[in-house]
Amino acid sequence: MRLALIYALLAALATLANIATQDVFLRVYQGAHAIALSILAGTLLGLVLKYALDKRFIFAFQAKDLAHDSRVFLLYAAMGGFTTLLFWGTELLFQALFATREMRYLGAVIGLAAGYWLKFILDRRFVFRLSENHGT
After folding, report:
1. Which of 92, 102, 119, 133 is 20 to 30 A from residue 15's alpha carbon, by CA?
2. Domain count of the chain?
3. Averaged pLDDT, 99-118
């Protein structure tokens, strides 16, 4: 239960960082494909932040070296492919249905919450499960 609470708090922090990045991006840039580019910027920042938080506070992962950490990060990012599509699809669906910033961000929060739940299951099973991933 404690781990679930910590994971939820870290997911909320990453979600806040993602949405804040999108909002700042859209305040600075309103050109072609602004919404799609803001979603991409938020996703990239969220991915790096969530990896750093998960590997330390959820999975107690310690890489052997930079190459090992890079391989694990790439696997972590790959596991996020489907969950990212879920998040993007939900956010863009809310944008199409409601056409407001607030509802688009609500869609993002819903998509991210569902994606992070699934991502935890995938990461626990495939990314951080093997002892060779733990630097021992």
Report:
1. 133
2. 1
3. 95
